């Protein structure tokens, strides 16, 4: 795998929550991408995930093309990725675990039926990490 773009072990912000508006945006984008996969990048502000970035050149439906990491903004507020699983559970695949290990520390997977409960957040090791939904 490629080497991390940033040293995420330094000054790693404590991300503990996601803004409800941002979460709804992820769910909507995942739903409207169906049956293709949707992918994006997450940014935080003061420990809360507040922003979704769609990467230029992101192609849904094809794992290898989903995240073009060289297109990432050089920005320490980037915490990780989000993508949807149009068919199946919110459990990370082996390819997902490779991605999580290579970049970031907070990765969201969205699955059907794309409601406020059908998502999960993982750290760089593929372990579930809790995220509170805040206004
Ligand atoms: Zn996946």
Key traits:
about 140 residues, seven-stranded mixed beta sheet, binds zinc ion
Produce a short descriptive summary:
With 135 residues, the chain is α/β, with parallel strands linked by helices. The chain has helices spanning 20-33, 63-66, 94-102; strands at residues 17-19, 39-45, 48-53, 78-85, 107-111, 119-122, 132-134.
Q: Could you characterize the architecture of this molecule?
A:
This protein is an alpha/beta fold and 135 residues long. It has one domain: Cytidine Deaminase, domain 2 (3-Layer(aba) Sandwich), CATH 3.40.140.10. 20% of the residues lie in helices and 27% in strands. It has three helices and seven strands; from the N terminus they run E-H-E-E-H-E-H-E-E-E. The chain has a seven-stranded mixed β-sheet, with helices on one face. Strand 5 (107-111) and strand 6 form a beta hairpin. The chain is globular and about 30 Å long. The protein starts with 16 loop residues before the first strand and ends with a strand.
**Roughly how many Å is the radius of gyration?**
13 Å
Bound molecules: zinc ion
Biggest sheet: strand arrangement: 6-5-4-2-3-1-7
Indicate the CATH architecture: 3-Layer(aba) Sandwich
Overall CATH class: Alpha Beta
Shape: globular
Quote the CATH topology. Answer: Cytidine Deaminase, domain 2
**What count of domains describes the coordinates?**
1
Q: What proportion strand?
A: 25-35%
Cα distance, first to last residue?
A: 36 Å
The helix fraction, in percent, is 10-25%
pLDDT averaged residue by residue: 82
């Amino acid at each position: 795998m490629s080497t991390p773009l940033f040293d995420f072990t330094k000054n790693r912000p404590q991300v503990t929550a996601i803004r409800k508006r941002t979460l709804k945006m992820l769910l909507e984008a995942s739903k409207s991408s169906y049956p293709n996969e949707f992918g994006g990048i997450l940014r935080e502000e003061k420990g809360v995930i507040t922003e979704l970035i769609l990467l230029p050149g992101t192609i849904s439906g094809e794992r290898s093309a989903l995240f073009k990491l060289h297109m990432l903004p050089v920005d320490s507020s980037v915490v990780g990725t989000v993508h949807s699983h149009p068919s199946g559970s919110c459990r990370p695949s082996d390819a997902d675990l490779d991605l999580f290990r290579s970049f970031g520390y907070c990765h969201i997977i969205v699955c059907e039926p794309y409601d406020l409960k059908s998502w999960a957040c993982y750290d760089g090791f593929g372990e579930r990490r809790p995220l509170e939904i805040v206004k």
